[in-house]
Specification:
Oligomer: single chain
Radius of gyration: 33 Å
Shape: elongated
Structural class: mainly beta
C-alpha cells in the first residue's frame, strides 16, 4: 500500500520511502578538495547555470518551466545515467574510460537491466534507481550524471547530488525542504527532459598554425547539436590567452558571433609585436574549444638567393644589397665569394632538376626549386649535396604546374608558385600548395583568369 505524505514548506503531495537528500544550490559548484561533506549541487537549465534545454524533473526537483521542443529520439541521443560516490570529494569522468576516471557504482543505459526509457507524451526520459543495490552505503553522497548525444557530439548535460541517510522512507530536497517518499522503500525515479537544439560538439581551427608578428589569422568555430547536425543561430563567445605582447589590442575583431546555417562563425586574431604563443578559445552553452597560434618574429637580414637559369648556378647576395653588388656566395660555405669552390653542388640525373628558374629556403634550410622544363617543384633536405634525389616533389597533372618560374614560402609554410604558362600565354597562374605538399596534389587555391593581369609571371615574394 502506498502511503502519501504531505511534506515540506510548499505543502506538495509527494510519494515516499528511503531517505535521500537532493541538493540544489551551493556557493562552490565544483569542490576541489576532499572534506567531511561535499558541497551539494545540482546542474541543469534551472539550477547552477547548467546546460540550456536540459531539465531534471519531479520527484528530484519541482516541475520546471520549459519552452523548447522535446527531443524524443532516444536511439540517437542514447542517454546514460552514471552514479558515483562523491562523499569524500568530486568525481572525475564518472564511469568513463579516460585516465583517472572515477569508477561508477552503476551505469544506466537504454539496454541496462533497469533501462532508460522515453515517454513522448510526458516529454520525459526516466530510469528507476534501486538505492539498495550492492555498492550503495547509507550516509554517503552520490552524484548522478546524465549524458547524451550521437557519435562525436556526446556530452554531459547535467548532474544531481543525492544523500542516502539512515532515516528510511524519505527523500529531501535540501534547497526547498520538500520531502519525497518512494512507494517501495528503495526505488528513486530519475526523470529528465532533453530539448532539441542543445549544442553537442564545438571545434575550433586556425587557418595558419603560425603567423608573423603584426600578422592576422582567421579562426573558425563549428558548432553541432546532439545529433551531430550543424547548429545555426547559436552564440559563440571568443577569448584569447597569450604570452605578453603576442596578442594585439584588441586581439579579436569580435567578442561573439552567431553561427550560420552551416553551424560556423569566425573571428580574426591579430598578433602583437612580440613573438610568443596565443590560444584563441570559443565557448557556447557549456562547451569550449581552442586553437593555438604561434607568433613568430619577422625574418630580419635574410640573404637573397637567386637561381641563374642560363649559368646553372645559384648566387647569394647579402641582405639589403643594392646596385652593382657582388654576390656573397655561390652555393658555398659562409663567407665564400668570387670563383670559390662551392661547399655543395646539387646536380645529376637523380636530382630531378630541369632548367631551375627559382628557389626558396625555409628557416630549417630546406631548399625548394622551381623546375621550368619539368613542371615540378623539387624539395631538398638541409645540407643536400651531390646527385641526391629530392626529399619531396610536387609534380603531376593535378598540380596545375606549367613552366613554373617562381617559388616563395608563406609564414605558415604554404608554397606559392608562379606559372609562366605555355608559348601562347595560356595557363599563367599562381598556384598555392599546403605546407609539406608532395606528389600529384591539387593546389589549395589558385590565382588565374582575365582579371588578374598575369602575363608570363616570373618572380614571387
Amino acid at each position: 500500500m502506498t502511503h502519501l505524505l504531505r511534506c515540506g514548506p510548499t505543502g506538495r503531495w509527494l510519494v515516499a520511502t528511503w531517505l535521500l537528500a537532493v541538493a540544489a544550490c551551493s556557493s562552490d559548484r565544483h569542490p576541489t578538495a576532499p572534506g567531511t561533506r561535499p558541497a551539494f549541487d545540482i546542474s541543469d537549465a534551472v539550477h547552477g547555470g547548467g546546460t540550456p534545454g536540459f531539465f531534471f524533473l519531479p520527484p528530484l526537483v519541482a516541475q520546471p518551466t520549459t519552452g523548447g521542443e522535446f527531443d524524443a529520439d532516444i536511439a540517437t541521443l542514447n542517454p546514460q545515467v552514471a552514479i558515483c560516490d562523491v562523499t569524500l570529494g568530486p568525481d572525475v569522468d564518472c564511469g568513463g574510460s579516460s585516465e583517472g576516471a572515477t569508477p561508477a557504482i552503476v551505469v544506466f543505459t537504454t539496454t541496462s537491466t533497469s533501462a532508460i526509457t522515453v515517454a513522448p507524451t510526458a516529454s520525459a526520459y526516466s530510469v528507476n534507481w534501486d538505492t539498495k543495490l550492492d555498492g550503495f552505503v547509507t550516509g554517503h553522497t552520490y552524484r548522478a550524471h546524465v549524458a547524451a548525444g550521437g557519435i562525436g557530439a556526446r556530452r554531459e548535460l547535467g548532474f544531481a547530488d543525492l544523500l542516502l541517510t539512515t532515516s528510511p522512507g524519505q527523500v529531501k530536497d535540501l534547497a526547498t525542504g520538500d520531502l519525497i517518499s518512494l512507494n517501495d522503500g528503495r526505488t528513486l525515479p530519475i526523470r529528465f527532459r532533453i530539448e532539441s537544439g542543445i549544442p553537442g560538439a564545438l571545434a575550433v581551427t586556425a587557418a595558419s598554425a603560425s603567423i608573423p608578428t603584426d600578422g592576422t589569422d582567421l579562426i573558425t568555430a563549428m558548432l553541432q547539436d546532439l545529433h551531430g547536425a550543424p547548429l545555426a543561430g547559436a552564440t559563440v563567445a571568443w577569448s584569447v590567452t597569450a604570452d605578453v605582447g603576442a596578442a594585439g589590442t584588441p586581439p579579436l575583431d569580435v567578442t561573439s558571433g552567431q553561427t550560420d546555417a552551416a553551424g560556423m562563425t569566425a573571428t580574426t586574431f591579430r598578433a602583437g609585436a612580440t613573438a610568443g604563443t596565443a590560444v584563441v578559445a570559443a565557448a557556447a552553452a557549456g562547451l569550449s574549444a581552442s586553437a593555438t597560434v604561434s607568433v613568430t618574429g619577422r625574418v630580419v637580414g635574410k640573404p637573397l638567393y637567386v637561381a641563374n637559369t642560363g649559368a646553372n648556378s645559384i648566387t647569394v647576395f647579402a641582405a639589403g644589397a643594392t646596385g652593382d653588388a657582388i654576390p656573397t656566395a655561390v652555393i658555398a660555405a659562409p663567407g665564400a665569394s668570387g670563383n670559390a669552390v662551392p661547399k655543395a653542388v646539387i646536380a645529376g640525373s637523380a636530382t630531378g632538376l630541369c632548367d631551375p628558374f627559382a628557389l626558396a629556403v625555409d628557416a630549417a634550410g630546406t631548399l625548394y626549386v622551381a623546375n621550368h622544363c619539368a613542371n615540378s617543384i623539387t624539395v631538398y633536405a638541409p645540407g643536400a649535396d651531390g646527385d641526391v634525389a629530392p626529399a619531396a616533389a610536387i609534380v603531376g597533372a593535378n598540380t596545375g604546374l606549367s613552366s613554373p618560374s617562381g617559388v616563395a614560402l608563406g609564414a605558415s609554410g604554404r608554397i606559392y608558385v608562379t606559372n609562366q604558362g605555355d608559348f601562347f600565354g595560356e595557363n599563367a597562374s599562381v598556384e598555392i600548395f599546403s605546407s609539406g605538399a608532395s606528389g600529384n596534389v591539387t593546389p589549395l587555391a589558385r590565382i588565374a583568369g582575365a582579371n588578374t593581369g598575369l602575363v608570363a609571371p616570373a618572380g614571387i615574394a
